[in-house]
Amino acid sequence: MLLIKNLFNLIIIMIVAVLFVACVASPKPEASDKSKLLNNEKVSKTKKRNMTFEVIEKDFEIIHNGLNENEEKKELLELHKNEQKDYVIGAGDMFNIFVYEELDLSVKGSVVKADGTLTFQLIGDVKVAGLTINQAMIKISNKLKKYLVNPIVSIIPVEFRSTSFTILGKVSLPGTYQITNNTKAIDSIAIAQGLSIGIFEDNTIELADLEHAFIRRGNKVLPVNFIELVRKGNPLHNIPLKDKDYIYIPSALNTEVYILGEVNLPGHYGFKERMTLSQVVTYAKGFKKTANLKKVAIIRGNLTNPTVYLANLEDILEGKMKDFLMKPFDIVYIPTSTLGDWNDILKTIMPSLEAIQSGYITNQIIRGD
Length: 369
Hints:
The chain contains nine helices and 18 strands. It is of the alpha+beta class.
């Protein structure tokens, strides 16, 4: 009987224990899911951090970071000022020339020849190219003194043909054109018959990449933003053109990188995702013995206001530092010696860059693209 009673008590205790465990609050499904979600997000972020390619440009020195807005505005305003400099005569210019009280010696519509001379009676050819109008009058007067007493010569401009600009790239008629009547930046596109257009998927599209277009004057690229100029009609960027200005408007359909300087095959190469500095050097068939691999410049953005990075290619090739990740339209410049400032770099690379661009345009014309 005692055994049965003890067994009964044991069963009662077990039942109570089971009921107590069953009544303990279990975690809410939402809380459990949220906890899992947070954990998953942490894992996902960690994976993404490991999978995302780093913005490795931060590891490289920047030796030029463009003009700020105020500096750019100041420079553009300066470019709008008309410099009161005496005009220098050049080949193709046309003049009316009068000799006081000597009607037989006066000429109309006299054009400066390719060798820079004008032809006169009595004195023959007189070289006037490179002279101002006042200097040319004095020179002609002095030569006429052999035949006349105190000759008075007047030179009246009819047409200036010696000043010109060149526009290449995605315009309808690339070429060299005369500057007349204060030709401005926006006029250059109109003179070249507008920006190029093409057909893509049955739609008419503009082929010009205005973001990377630029104007070079001498050894300097001017801070003219073609998006502001063409799209927004910003008059600040519509500067007057000057003799020998060079305008280049690249194609919006091509993404490429350039490599210049001490490489075996400088030129432009099609951009590929994850392209690196060392790969671009490989495409250029390697570097020359004269190359300074410790100071390689990578020029990013439009040439009017670029960012210029400095990379040690020698360390990259030896695995001592990360490779530089390229972007479309980057320009790699490998010098022979230590790099100067941005203006020095630009002065060095522009002739090669323009030769490559001109060759590219010529090939397109030949192919009929």
